[in-house]
Design brief:
By secondary structure, the protein is mainly α. 77% of the residues lie in helices and 0% in strands. The longest helix is centred in the middle third of the chain and has 23 residues, at 94-116. It is globular.
């Protein structure tokens, strides 16, 4: 599963890619105080890191006395844990680790689209990387849909390459 080197070079050297990176960092900076992140996601993830258990939802309800918790399943929860543990070790905010997780999946999705839409890097950059709808929904509204979409896109790539078991496992995680 490798991207064509000329495609990778084009993307990395493209001003469109770097414009997208700058926009994302600006949105990350401005989204650190966004309501869903501050109210639901970051506190739940932080509580999970501080009290790691197989059922973080029950632990959250017992600790916080509110049923308003992280409204996603295990795959999404597991996706956020690596950066959350790193944030705890480095003493940075869980909100920032949450947004860096989204950025990681955003970059993974750019890579996945580059794998699936071969020899069209400018189309991928314009159609995906600079899409205002995706930028707004992911970084400003705090919608986490980018994670299952990335898993689904990698699943499609596996299916395209006749790797049905891998495709099925990724699809299952996306669902």
């Amino acid at each position: 599963m490798a991207i064509n080197m000329s495609t990778a070079n084009f993307i990395l050297k493209s001003p469109l890619f770097w414009l997208g990176v700058l926009i994302r960092f600006g949105l990350i900076y401005s989204a650190l105080s966004a309501a869903p992140i501050v109210t639901w996601y970051a506190p739940f993830i932080e509580a999970s890191v501080n009290n790691l258990t197989f059922d973080p939802w029950s632990s959250w309800v017992a600790q916080s006395q509110t049923p308003l918790a992280f409204p996603y399943g295990y795959v999404m929860w597991l996706a956020f844990l690596p950066f959350a543990f790193a944030a705890k070790a480095l003493g940075i905010s869980t909100g920032l680790s949450y947004l860096l997780t989204l950025l990681t999946f955003d970059l993974a999705l750019l890579y996945a689209f580059s794998l699936n839409i071969t020899n069209r890097p400018k189309l991928v950059l314009l159609g995906y990387w600079l899409s205002p709808i995706l930028l707004f929904s992911t970084y400003y509204l705090g919608f986490n849909d980018i994670i299952p979409v990335a898993l689904l896109t990698f699943s499609l790539f596996q299916l395209k390459n006749n790797k049905a078991l891998n495709a099925g496992a990724l699809l299952l995680c996306a669902i």
